[in-house]
Structure formats: structure tokens, C-alpha cells
Automatic annotation (TrEMBL):
<dbReference type="InterPro" id="IPR013998">
    <property type="entry name" value="Nebulin-like"/>
</dbReference>
<dbReference type="Pfam" id="PF00880">
    <property type="entry name" value="Nebulin"/>
</dbReference>
<keyword id="KW-0677">Repeat</keyword>
<dbReference type="GO" id="GO:0030018">
    <property type="term" value="C:Z disc"/>
</dbReference>
<protein>
    <submittedName>
        <fullName>NEBU protein</fullName>
    </submittedName>
</protein>
<dbReference type="InterPro" id="IPR000900">
    <property type="entry name" value="Nebulin_repeat"/>
</dbReference>
<dbReference type="GO" id="GO:0051015">
    <property type="term" value="F:actin filament binding"/>
</dbReference>
<dbReference type="InterPro" id="IPR055297">
    <property type="entry name" value="NEBU/NEBL"/>
</dbReference>
<keyword id="KW-0009">Actin-binding</keyword>
<dbReference type="GO" id="GO:0071691">
    <property type="term" value="P:cardiac muscle thin filament assembly"/>
</dbReference>
Length: 242
């Protein structure tokens, strides 16, 4: 019953020239960034066609020439009015004299020849000092002092290797004390055993606090009918005012 209706729901046909469809297409074209810059992209692909005698090119060249001539004559314009009347500085006696004084007082130029001569040192190869330095270097060289004979390897099942391992095990302190390390911490004695009671008695005998106990700390009671106590009571009754 509903098969025809379900088939009709899945087949929707919209006319492409409806006002709503046309308006949506126009809005999409208006907000499209690609279409907005399409003319600019097409112009960039065509390249530029600017002639050498174009007005902007001629204006730029003229501005460059004006700026170049101004920069070229800037130092000349600043020096106008400061000339001393000589064409060059060498013709001026004061300037030439100052230049000579500067050369005389320049310590770098004064020592230039000496510094250049220091860098040219020629020592013969067979000189006595060179030979002595080479021999000294050979004596103090660690490379020649530690001259290794050769590099060799031993197989693990050789007799000397097995014997060396056994000797190392006998001399090893870790192997020697391995049984002691295994037994450490596992010893235990009962509370009432002979060794424990003996240790407690020895501790009481060696206890300094129990050995030197003060008399006033001992617990004792005096006898009431001792002669000195009876005499003290009689004396107290005789001396009593009551």
C-alpha cells in the first residue's frame, strides 16, 4: 500500500529555472572569493607590457638621476667656503707638515719593518737546537714510551684461560665471602635459650648504672625497736614542751 508513496518520496525533481534556484546561484556568485579575484588572476597570467619610454619609467629615471647628482655633490657643497687656497693637501705646508709629524709619531708604522722581519724566521733543519728538541720530544713522548707489542686474542676453552679463571676465583674476595653473605641475617636464637640468658646476665654484670647504685635509691625500712631509735624517742619526749 505504501510502496508507491515511498518510491515517490525518494524521487524529488526541482526545476533548474525556478526563482529560488536562480537567486541561490546569483548569491553564490556574489560571495565567491574565486570569482572575485578571477580577473586579477587572469591579468597576472598575461604578464606586464611596459615600454621603456613609458611615463612612469621616464619619471623614475629622472628622479634617480636627480638624487644621484645631489648625493654626488653633497660633500662638495658642504666643503664650500672651507678651502685654504691650495688645490691639494700636499701643496699646503701646514697640512704636509702635520702629515709628516703623524707619520713620525705613529708607533705602528715605526715598528712595521721590525714586525714584518719577526715573521720571517729561517732555521736550518740540522741545527743543534732543533736536533736537541727532537730528541727531547722523543724521550718525553708517551707514544714511543708505551710501545705495544701486538694485539692478540685467546680462545675461551684454552687451558691457560681456564687456569687463569680458577686462579681469579680463588683470589676473588666476593667468591670467598659468598657463603658468609648468604648466611648473614638468617641466624636466630630462642628467647629462653642458654645463650640468650647468658648474654643478659653478662649485660647486667657490665651495666654501670646497676653497679654504682646510690644508697638513697635503694628500697629499705628501718627497724622501729632498735636501740638508737628508742633512745631518740626518749630524748624527744624529754625535750618536748607539751
Amino acid at each position: 500500500y505504501t510502496e508507491a508513496w515511498d518510491a515517490d518520496k525518494t524521487s524529488i525533481h526541482v526545476m533548474p529555472d525556478t526563482p529560488t534556484i536562480l537567486l541561490a546561484k546569483a548569491n553564490a556568485a556574489n560571495v565567491s572569493h574565486k570569482l572575485y579575484i578571477q580577473a586579477w588572476e587572469d591579468a597576472k597570467k598575461k604578464g606586464y607590457d611596459m615600454r621603456a619610454d613609458a611615463i612612469p619609467i621616464r619619471s623614475a629615471k629622472a628622479s634617480r638621476d636627480i638624487a644621484s647628482e645631489y648625493k654626488y655633490k653633497e660633500a662638495h657643497e658642504k666643503q664650500k667656503g672651507h678651502y685654504v687656497g691650495c688645490k691639494t693637501a700636499k701643496e699646503d705646508p701646514k697640512l704636509s707638515w702635520a702629515a709628516k709629524v703623524m707619520l713620525l709619531t705613529n708607533d705602528r708604522l715605526y715598528k712595521k719593518a721590525y714586525n714584518d722581519s719577526k715573521t720571517h724566521i729561517h732555521i736550518p733543519v740540522d741545527a743543534m737546537s732543533v736536533q736537541a728538541a727532537k730528541e727531547c720530544q722523543t724521550l718525553v713522548s708517551d707514544v714511543d714510551y708505551r710501545h705495544y707489542l701486538h694485539q692478540w686474542t685467546c680462545l675461551p676453552d684454552q687451558n691457560d684461560v681456564i687456569h687463569a679463571r680458577k686462579a681469579y676465583d680463588l683470589q676473588s674476595d666476593n667468591v670467598y665471602k659468598s657463603d658468609l653473605e648468604w648466611l648473614r641475617g638468617i641466624g636466630w636464637l630462642a628467647e629462653g635459650s642458654v645463650d640468650v640468658v647468658k648474654a643478659k646476665k653478662a649485660q647486667e654484670l657490665l651495666n654501670e648504672r646497676l653497679y654504682r647504685t646510690r644508697p638513697e635509691q635503694l628500697k629499705f625500712t628501718s627497724v622501729t625497736d632498735a636501740p638508737d631509735v628508742v633512745q631518740a624517742k626518749i630524748n624527744a619526749m624529754q625535750l618536748s614542751d607539751v
